[in-house]
Amino acid sequence: MKTASLALASLTLTAGLLAQGNYLRFGKGCAGSRGVPILAATGEHKIGATTTVQVANLLPSQPAMLFIGASDKLWFGKIPLPFDLAAVGMTGCTQYISTEIAVATTTGPGFVTYKFVVPLRRELAGLIMFHQYYALDPGAKRPSRSVVSNAGKLTVGVACKDGKVIKDSNKLSLTIPPITGINNPPIDAVINFTGTVQQKCCSGPFVPTKGCVFNGAGDIAGTTPDFTIKVPPEMSKAVSDAACAEVRKYTLGIVRCTIAMDSMRVKGARLGGKLGVSVDECRKKFNWSGGGALTFGSIESKATVRFTVKILFSFNFSVDLDLSGRPTGAWAIANNKLVASGKLTQVRAAKTFTIPVINQKCTFDYTATTNKLQGSTDPVDLPKPPIGCN
User: Beta partners for 374?
Assistant: First the structure.
């Protein structure tokens, strides 16, 4: 077993892309009398830790060389890699790495181990080196009587430890604008959420980074005061025409109507429902999801119809119709944007009254419909939820 420290003065290393270290094997070796030499490594591959490189399937007690390089692209700065070694008598063998450092050794009992202690120096985080092993083998069926292993790539990582998983809860306030067509007041809503949060080690360039990861769920609630909906002219006209037609059935005369039905009062609105939320600061992402009901109160209004009746003589009278109905609505989140929608498609106008002069009882019940009282809010951008971790 051999132990060595990284000799940075002798080797110019290449900056890598991972703050979390790893060791990747690539290429393939060429066979000798004990099969194909296999190079592999174990360890945490980070600053302050040890990487153990092992080579197996070797003929015992033979001269050997462990090469350490800075590149898998160029050899001696100009020869493209990988390079076919057949030209130097090593048929079937390939050179995969540059050879800035050569460690003379032997094959031992046919299995060798080298321990590389990476100094605890932050500037080493993210650096890269390559390994490949050569050994003599008199039984190898090639002119050079030697074998070559596959190659390995060591990326030096950083010491990083995930934090504890803890519970966290918080709240977020937002204002949901009016729904076009309904024109309700803005909804002041509060999101309460709870979940678990953990500080995680993040992959990143060269330096140790950490970020919070949160997963949770919660609910949203908001209300509006009572408000009025403006009645489309065609809806009020339909109610007026229907009332006139009802009275005309009993008077058999000329009936004209005018109606005061400009707006209807709604008993407020309530938004509620469940939602989910996640944050991954390592990936710089967060996500809200969910949907639910927007429940409107009932309509409690009246519409005054004034009748002018001409038979042999004329008379006038007025009736206050009772208006009823209820808008429907919903809300949903997509792409971290909340949108609420609502509609009122029909209103019932009803009243039992007596037509004066002819003393005729009349029951009026009519449902007016419309497609004008519907719409949605402008999207509300939901921000990254406030979370904290240690």
Answer: 343
β-bridge partners, 304 = 260, 320
User: What stretches of the chain show up as alpha helix (H) in DSSP?
Assistant: 233-251
* Cβ count within 10 A of residue 88: 13
Calculate the alpha carbon distances from 293 to 52, 176, 222, 267 in Å.
60, 14, 11, 16
Convert the pLDDT of each residue in 124-182 to its tens digit. 877 899 999 999 999 999 999 999 999 999 998 866 677 889 999 999 999 999 999 99
Q: Which of 96, 101, 106, 92 has its CA nearest to residue 62? A: 106
- Tell which of 126, 155, 184 closes a domain: 155
Q: Say if residue 82 is in the same domain as residue 192.
A: no
Mean pLDDT of 295-317: 94
For residue 216, give the nearest of 41, 388, 2 by alpha carbon. Answer: 388
How many other C-beta atoms can be found within 10 angstroms of the C-beta atom of residue 228? 14
Q: Report the b/e string of 141-172 with b at 16+ CB within 10 A.
A: ebebbbbbbbbbbbbbbbebeeeeeeebebeb
Torsion angle defined by CA atoms of residues 181, 183, 189 and 191, in that order, rounded to the nearest 10 degrees? 10
What is the span of the domain harbouring residue 236?
166-381
One-letter amino acid for residue 124 of the chain:
L
Same domain, 151 and 45: yes
Q: Is the peptide bond before 82 cis (omega within 30 degrees of 0)?
A: yes
CB distance 243 to 237 below 8 Å: no
59-93 pLDDT, tens digit each:
999 999 999 999 999 999 999 999 999 999 999 99
In angstroms, the CA 214 to CA 385 distance is 10
| Max Cα-Cα span within the chain | 133
The tally of domains found in the chain comes to: 2
The C-alpha atoms of residue 29 and residue 55 are separated, in whole angstroms, by 11
